[in-house]
Amino acid sequence: MAEQFGEDFSSRLRRVVLLALFLFFLPVGIWITVHYFLPRELAWLSKNEFLHTVNLLTIFIGLIVIAAAPAASLFIGENRSRLGIVFRPLIAAVMVLVTVTTIFQAGLFIYIAYQVGKTTISWVPGQVFLILGIVSIICCWNLVNVGFRSIQLQPIYLNGIYLNRENQQKIYQLVEHVAHKLGACTPDQIVLGLEPVMFVTSSPVKLSGTNGQLLTGNTLCLSVGLMHLLSVNELTAIIGHELGHFRGKDLDYSRRFVPIYTRLIKIIEHTEPMEGEGIGAFAKLPAFATLHFYLTEFSRLERKIHRERELLADHAAFEATSKSGQALALVKTALYSPLWNFSIRKHFDAVSKQNISPNFSQAYKVDCEALFMDLNWDDEQIFLLGDAQAHPFDSHPTLAERLAICETTIADIGIEDLKPNIHSSASLIDDIEFIETTLSQTELPSIRWQMSAQYIQRRDIY
């Protein structure tokens, strides 16, 4: 426990030092230079009230930027509603302040450099200040752009098909029944995709499978691939879990915090300075340092709250169906989902060679059935209970923790329970073969690009 705390403290300290260097190095350095290192001809700068005011204001803004994160954490505590209300405006305000302090620092540095150059060498190359000005403008533009993007709800791009309520009454009736039973908000629409992932979102969803249709409101995304493997009872458990995020205190949290937080993670991944970018990497540094500092500060709160939310959503799954249904849904999803990438690559090769119409969902189902036939369940249990997290900001409880809530262990589940269902929940979808084929055709360009990218990488390696 002590080692974990020490590691956490040291990483937090590094983030604070990085941000503090950006916020305070230049204004403090200017203050020291003006008072102790300038020649006599420039002694008047130490008495320049405007210069001192701007410098002190820059330092004061920096203190606010650093202090706002722990202050907000103390105010929020473990209150989900407060976190949903505070996070977005705080990030917006902080990015404005960092932009202002960047402008102040750039102005101070250019002004002092000009005065020093004019006094010591009597002539200052205009190109130097042009470059400094351009770098400052790029930094400020990058800050404004990243700040705007971080608080703007961007659509989730999804290869899926919008299920019309009139044409798909069976699945809508099941979802509405579960929502009514839980006292949760009924999704505004249901989207069916190929990949073995199911979730709810309040973010806009843009569908590539229906000519870029944009959906707003609450969306439930289901996987036709998983539905072939799950019984109706197991699918009901998953729907119950997902709709559990749209009731009670979770409602505001799901609508206000989760989309912005998820968006911020993606922005940071694309904002991190990379080698070889030159001035571009330097221009990214202020935005990256600020957002990374705030994200990691809030991730501590998010991890604790999110883990509690997931476990509470599992209780919603029990209410919707049963603990055994939820346990089987969890284990089946964990067992079969990793097979997806292998399956589409294998089927893509067959489609390319034989020039046939693809159906990645059916191919995935066949591969999952083959996996079950060759399954060594004793060895697989050890793998499934591994505690590795795919992303540093991932906060989902482990499979073992979630099974414990179901009052079961993975050893209680027999291998026959994991067999893909003959009478699966895919029967709830009308005209399923047409939907699968349409989605597969839409998925082809993306898979073709991935495969070509992998080929280029292999060619570069060898």
Beta content comes to 5-15%
Distance between the termini: 44 Å
Q: Output the number of helix runs.
A: 15
- Strand tally is 7
Low-confidence stretches: 1-7, 387-393, 453-462
User: What's the structural domain tally?
Assistant: 2
Mean pLDDT: 80
**Quick one: biggest sheet?**
4 strands, mixed
Global geometry: elongated
Kindly report the spatial arrangement of strands forming the biggest sheet: 2-3-7-4
User: Structural class of the helices, strands and pairings?
Assistant: mainly alpha
Considering DSSP H and I runs of 4 or more, what fraction of the residues is helical? 55-70%
What would your notes on this structure say?
This protein has 462 residues and is mostly helical. The chain folds into two domains: 2-152, no CATH class; 156-256 and 309-461, no CATH class. It contains 15 helices and seven strands. It has a four-stranded mixed beta sheet with strand order 2-3-7-4. It has a three-stranded mixed beta sheet with strand order 1-5-6, with no helix packed on it. Helix 1 packs antiparallel against helix 9 and helix 2 (49-76) runs antiparallel to helix 3. The longest helix has 42 residues, at 279-320. The protein starts with a helix and ends with a helix.
